[in-house]
Amino acid sequence: MRWLELTxxxxxxxxxxxxxxFGRVGQGSAVRPTRLIRDASDELSACEDPTAPYEITAxxxxxxxxxxxxxxTERALWHLQAFGLRPLGELQVRSxxxxxxxxxxxxxxxxxxxxxxxxxxxxxxxxIGAYEVALRLDPGMAFGTGLHPTTRGCLTLLQAISxxxxxxxxxxxxxxxxxxxxxxxxxxxxxxYDTDPLAVEATLANAAANGLADRVTxxxxxxxxxxxxxxxxxxxxxxxxxxLIDLAEPLAxxxxxxxxxLASGIIDTRxxxxxxxxxxAGFALDHRLDDGxxxxxxxxx
Length: 301
Known about the structure:
Blueprint: E1 2-10, H1 15-25, E2 27-32, E3 36-38, E4 44-46, E5 54-61, H2 66-82, E6 92-97, E7 112-114, E8 117-120, E9 133-136, H3 149-158, E10 167-171, H4 177-184, E11 189-194, H5 197-209, E12 216-220, E13 232-238, H6 241-246, H7 248-254, E14 255-267, H8 271-281, E15 284-291, E16 294-300
Parallel strand pairs: 8-9, 10-11, 10-13, 11-12, 13-14
Antiparallel strand pairs: 1-5, 1-6, 2-5, 3-4, 7-8, 14-16, 15-16
């Protein structure tokens, strides 16, 4: 069987958005280079040239449906530009054989350690330390593979929550990585919302893959104005700046007095604007975490 290989280059701002698009139409969405390599101490570190563009690939069957899939991919990539992401490379398409890609796309991935959280692709084995928690999570299913600074920021702040409340809310769950990490770190149940049906599907699939299906509820749609029952002690919201601003009031309604909101997905040029909206809604800033151009906020209700 022959396949079409789709390839586009981008910087780290667009990795997860492009991977999500490729995951919709193709198989084996991969990012090269991974930017995460093992050094002499067996620790993960960044590759030598952090400014080099990422190359993202996916594969679709070379059949009668291929032209429509390529067109849909081109259209979705174009729409990313409308959201203000930096320019992407031109979509490249070439014909390849089965043997050229069946396993090769996995070669660039290694387990990632973000504090105590270890993100392990399903085809790899990784020793897990006594104080570490593992998440089985394959790249390309939806937003939230751990590569993006916004995901890393939320995971870093999440590990400072002590004690972990029994129930958490994840708004814009994507792959479900934050909700699943909260469960691994001590929460008993997680409720998730996402407006993308594929993200809801990915959240539930990843919960099942990690043996957590009975502890995760995933809803399709935006956050309602008020919580259906009681507000939460911890709310996770890895969105974009505009989304956090629009949802500031509903987020405040879902956080119990004295509770915590971890907000991320914020480009640094809009951090003050997001914080102002959250403070107007009733939050106070406890901690700000900067990672390059991206900001994560720990806010108290």
